[in-house]
Amino acid sequence: MSTTDPEGNTFPIEDHFVNRLGLALSFDGTGSAGAAQIPPEAFVPGTKRLRTAYLATLVDMVAGHAPTGGVGPTVDLRVQLLSSPPPGGTIRLACSPLRVGRRLIVAQTLLYSQEHPTPFATATTTFINKYVGGNLDAMPPPAPAVEESLDAFIGARVRDDRSMELTSRARIANGLNGTVQGGVQALLAEMTAEHLLGGGAHMAALDLDIRYLGSVRTGPLVATVVSSPAIHPFAMVHLTDGATGDLVSHVSLTMEYVA
C-alpha cells in the first residue's frame, strides 16, 4: 500500500509517521475511540517516559474522527497529564464531542492505561467540521522500525541553543493540507523545549498546547523557544516556515525532568 505526498511523490504508507502509532479506531454513533499498542520508539530516548507529543498525535487522530469520520484540519489541541503515563502496554482513548457546529467540532478526549479505569491524561481539541474521509482501521502494520525513537524518525537538527529544524518530507507530511503532520509539529516543539531547558537532561511535557496557524509550504520547519528560560520549566515555542518566516504553529509547554 502506498500514498502520495503534496509534491506527487509516492511512498509506502507503512513508513509514515501516523502508521507508527499502533492505533485502531472505533465509533459508537456519538463519539470515537481508539486503542494503541505503545511502540518502543514512542519514549523519550533513554527513558521509560512516553513523549507527550506521541499522546498528542493519538488524540489528533482519534478526535479528528469524531463523531463518525475524518474531519479537519486541526485548529488546536491541548494534552494535560493527570498522572504518569504508562511505561508500556495499550492506551485507550475515548473522545466525546462537546459541540458539533456547522464550522467547528470541539471535543474532549480521555486517555487510559490498560490496567486502570482512571484517566492519566485529558485533551481538548478543535477541528474544522469538514469531512476528509480516511480509515485507520485499514492501515497496514508499520514497517520495521529503523530508528530507535520517534525523535530520530522525524530527523530534527539543532540550529542553535534555542532552536531546531526539520526538513519536510513524505514520511512526516500531512498530504491533505500540504504541511507537516500535526503530531510531528508537536514533537519538534517538545524536543526544542527539552533542548533549551534540559541542560543535557531528559525532559518531557506535562502540558502541551498547540495552535495550528499556517502551513509549511517550502521549509525547513523551524522551532524556536521565544519565552525566557527564566520562567523554567515553561516554554513558548514558535514553529515557522524557514523559507518565508511565516508562523505555522504556536506551542505552549510545561516541562518536567524524566528518567
Quick recap of the structure?
With 259 residues, the protein is mostly beta strands. It is built from three helices and 16 strands.
Under the CATH scheme, the architecture is Beta Barrel
Could you give a short account of the major beta sheet?
12 strands, antiparallel
Strand order within the widest beta sheet:
3-4-6-7-8-5-13-16-15-14-10-9
- Evaluate the radius of gyration: 17 Å
| Alpha carbon gap, first and last residue | 38 Å
Walk me through this protein's architecture.
The chain is mainly beta. It has one domain (2-139, 149-257): Acyl-CoA thioesterase, double hotdog domain (Porin). The protein is 13% helix and 39% strand. It has three helices and 16 strands. It has helices spanning 52-63, 150-154, 182-197, and strands spanning 2-4, 10-12, 23-27, 32-37, 74-81, 90-100, 104-113, 121-128, 157-160, 163-166, 173-174, 179-180, 203-212, 221-225, 234-241, 247-257. It has a twelve-stranded antiparallel β-sheet, covered by helices on one side. A two-stranded antiparallel ribbon has the order 1-2. Helix 1 runs antiparallel to helix 3.
Outline the fold blueprint.
Layout: E1 2-4, E2 10-12, E3 23-27, E4 32-37, H1 52-63, E5 74-81, E6 90-100, E7 104-113, E8 121-128, H2 150-154, E9 157-160, E10 163-166, E11 173-174, E12 179-180, H3 182-197, E13 203-212, E14 221-225, E15 234-241, E16 247-257
Helix pairs in contact: 1-3
Name the features.
mainly beta; about 15% helix; single chain; 12-stranded antiparallel β-sheet; globular; about 260 residues
